[in-house]
Amino acid sequence: MMISEIEEEMERATFEMLKLEGFNPDHWRIKEIPIDDQLMTFQNLNDDTEFTIMCEDDGTISPYYTTIRNGCGTDNKAKSIIEAIELSDWYGRNENTK
């Protein structure tokens, strides 16, 4: 997979965030880049845990989580990767169909 300079910086910053939050970056990989230079999904190599990183318009790189309501997904900014993982509705976690 070829990645741009912006995506390389997003990956580097994400691995630094993982380290700061107590994760081993060697256990994570880029799963997909659905929006070039803006959005990346990272997946844990040992299970199905994943989170999204978004590059904001101002260049800030932030973790995001997805909530699902009535079958529609909404991306929400998280304070940390841990929060993004814990609050995500993907894979039946926290799923709320109200």
Plain-language structure description:
The structure is a single chain. With 98 residues, the protein is of the alpha+beta class. The chain has a domain at 30-73 and 80-98. The chain is 23% helix and 36% strand. The protein is built from two helices and five strands. The chain has helices spanning 5-20, 81-87, and strands at 28-35, 39-44, 50-55, 61-69, 72-77. Strands 1-2-3-4-5 form a five-stranded antiparallel sheet. Residues 92-98 have low confidence and may be disordered.
Beta-strand content bin: 35-45%
Low-pLDDT stretches are 92-98
Element-by-element helix/strand order = HEEEEEH
- What gap, in angstroms, lies between the N and C termini? 39 Å
Helix content: 10-25%
- Shape descriptor reads globular
Q: What structural class results from the helix and strand content?
A: alpha+beta
Mean pLDDT: 88
What is the overall number of helices?
A: 2
DSSP strand count: 5
| Strand order, largest beta sheet | 1-2-3-4-5
